[in-house]
Design goal:
alpha/beta, 4-stranded antiparallel beta sheet, Rossmann fold, 2 domains, 8 helices, 10 strands, single chain, ABC_transporter-like_CS, 6-stranded mixed beta sheet, binds adenosine-5'-triphosphate
Length: 248
Amino acid sequence: MIQLENLQKSFGPHKVLAGVDLTVPQGRSMVIIGGSGSGKSVLLKCILGLETPDGGRILVDGQDATKGDRDAFLARFGMLFQGAALFDSLPVWQNVAFRLLRGALKRPKAEAREIAIEKLRRVGLSPDVADKFPAELSGGMQKRVGLARAIAAEPQIIFFDEPTTGLDPIMAGVIDDLIREITAEMGATALTITHDMGSVRAIADEVAMLHGGKIRWTGPVAELDASGDPYVEQFITGSSTGPIAALR
Ligand SMILES: Nc1ncnc2c1ncn2[C@@H]1O[C@H](COP(=O)(O)OP(=O)(O)OP(=O)(O)O)[C@@H](O)[C@H]1O
């Protein structure tokens, strides 16, 4: 379970997070939506310790994420970055097994490779992909590799940062379905940020909308269309008119 309590973060005079309260229950999939610049990435970075919050608390399974052993804390997370963010100089299997080849989760090389091949299979890629380099793969295949990497160490918590950006609608749907299936079968707690309403509906159990530095609305995905919140309505319909100022 992830609990954010009154989380705050400013950059100079610019208050990006102005007291975010949010709970992601164990084994549930939460998707955070919000306009460009609303602070979704900053929120994720605060949880991962890549940004230091100015105030508030981040609790993961009841423990303060900013205290204690960082490596042990991060070992519980998997992450699929925007654009897959693979290492071009490493073959696919070493990308997938990256965290199994070094640090706290290190395994013998042959075992790490076996796990990589098994995870590649889980995301629909055959073993012959293991020895290719990322540049030899299509964008959709690279996303699958990124997903295989995110799950390689069997994390309890997985973050997905814009998982379908740059993919065609069919491939986006395939990746959404894989994310949904895999997180459910792992029983993982998932936190996703996306602009893609198709992804929201495919991946989310719960949705939270970040606006004005706070959680504007949160609820089950089934209630999204009847939220009654004008900000949520404008966002999900993609309207240029409404309470959210749209720059032209
Ligand atoms: N390191 C930083 N220094 C200064 N300002 C920053 C920094 N990181 C983020 N910001 C600012 O914080 C605000 C929120 O950024 P963030 O990247 O979290 O938005 P976002 O909701 O993820 O947007 P998008 O959907 O466009 O990716 C932006 O105005 C951004 O310029």
